[in-house]
Design a protein that fits this description.
The chain is α+β, with helices and mostly antiparallel strands and about 160 residues long. The protein is about 20% helix and about 30% strand. The protein is built from two helices and six strands, in the order αββαββββ. A hairpin with a 5-residue loop joins strand 4 and strand 5.
């Protein structure tokens, strides 16, 4: 939501389990489109409270989800991955909000996109410096503020 939207507009509804399933499925699909594997044991999930523009925190169960998982894809593949995903996500209704191809450990690959219809976000990027561990590739997704089905939306 932008700052000009109605802060009491109905929120999208989704159970946490369904949101997590979407995140797992979506990151797996991104990796499949890019032609790389993911490392399921590296997955991290964070459900967070939604905080309003003026630091309001509702008590109605609303939440947002941030989920990521790594791929062992070598740095030499990272530019190909972000190029492939940029093309595919643009065709699927995502607005590309950030893009950089891999040049070095200090100018690594980054792709950021937001779904224009539901505001779900995707990030795909090189992670790690490569100094102590090999650089990996990360696929992450985040949701806008969601409300569990059946919960009464608190008004502000």
């Amino acid at each position: 939501m932008s700052q000009h939207d109605d802060k009491n507009a109905p929120l999208p509804r989704m159970e946490k389990a369904a949101a997590l399933k979407w995140a797992r499925d979506h990151t797996a699909r991104l990796a499949e489109v890019a032609g790389v594997d993911i490392l399921p044991d590296t997955a991290k999930t964070a459900f967070e409270e939604c905080v309003g523009e003026h630091d309001e925190v509702a008590e109605d169960g609303r939440y947002s989800l941030y989920y990521y998982v790594y791929s062992p894809a070598p740095a030499t593949d990272h530019t190909r991955i972000v190029r492939t995903l940029r093309e595919e996500l643009a065709k699927s209704g995502y607005e590309i909000t950030g893009y950089r191809e891999f040049k070095s450990a200090y100018e690594s690959s980054v792709l950021r996109a937001r779904n224009k219809k539901n505001q779900f976000s995707v990030e795909a990027e090189t992670v790690g410096s490569g100094k102590k561990k090999p650089q990996r590739f990360s696929f992450s997704v985040s949701t806008p503020c969601l409300l569990p089905p059946g919960a009464e939306q608190q008004q502000f």
